[in-house]
Amino acid sequence: MKTIMAKSFQDLSSKRQFHWTAKVSNEEQEQEQEEVTSKDSSPNRNEGGKTENIKVHSFKNPQVSNTKSSTLNTIHENKAEDKQESSSATRRKLQTIAVARLKSVLTAFGRNRSNFQQGLGTRVVGTLFGHRRGHVHFAFQKDSTSQPAFLVELATPISGLVREMASGLVRIALECDKEEEKKVSRLIDEPVWRTYCNGKKCGFATRREIGAKELQILKAVEPISMGAGVLPGNGEEESADSGEIMYMRAKFERVIGSRDSEAFYMMNPDSNGAPELSIYLLRV
Predict the structure, then answer these.
(1) What is the DSSP letter of 49?
(2) Can you tell me the distance from the alpha carbon of 71 to that of 191, in angstroms, rounded to the nearest whole number?
(3) Residues 172, 205: contact at Cβ < 8 Å?
(4) Where does 61-123 have alpha helices with state H?
């Protein structure tokens, strides 16, 4: 009996030891698993107890990267467009300035050209005209269609000049005073002249501005290159400013001696003999 109880007690103790050992081993396994898990989830520590940083590789979202790249491309495109617009605006401004300068240069050139056209060359067209009872007018033009560059009215009656020309050669001298204080101008721009016809004083001559009446007369004789005649009047009674108009038209050679002397010689058709009419401008 004692032997049976001892065996059973021994068996029970062995069973209890086995169960305790299995339980302890299970608990140790669970503790080891928890430690491994905690090590995986927490930052690693080195032997000295310091925390070691674990590099975690992050993976970028392709949609986010595409959005950022498209935004950057849009910004670069906007900057490029702004630069292009500013450069085009600057180019347009420079073009406007260049066009304005070109227009001003062309305008100035046109003015100078018109002034040059109104000037006289070496060969000019001269017209002598006036009413039968009026005074003599001399007009010099660059050509038959241009505006007169020089128009002067003499105090001599045209009938007296016709008689002088019928008797022979005629020399008409127009003199003006030289003023040192006065700014030097063109000789044909002088306003008042003393008149001499074949050495005889014949009063004064006055420079005139071209008017509608003078333009009408010059327009009437425009087709005539050389000759003399009478233009019909307006039907009114003859006076100093009305009635028939006597004229003589010819080509003259202009000779410039200096800025204070010029001469106009009427050119004969046959180019023989002395000129029938010569006009001298002198500043003395």
Answers:
(1) S
(2) 81
(3) no
(4) 62-118
Greatest pairwise CA separation for the chain in angstroms = 199
Reference 126, options 206, 256, 224; nearest CA is 224
Q: What is the pTM of this model?
A: 0.57
Which tokens sit at 230? 């009478």
Nearest to 266 by CA among 254, 284, 251, 281: 251
Q: Mean pLDDT per 10-residue run, the chain (284 residues)?
A: 47 48 52 52 44 44 59 71 76 83 69 51 94 92 92 92 86 90 79 94 93 93 92 70 87 93 88 79 93
CB 164 within 8 A of CB 181: no
Decide the pairing of beta strands 200-207 and 148-157: antiparallel
Asked if 261 and 251 touch (Cβ cutoff 8 Å), the reply is no
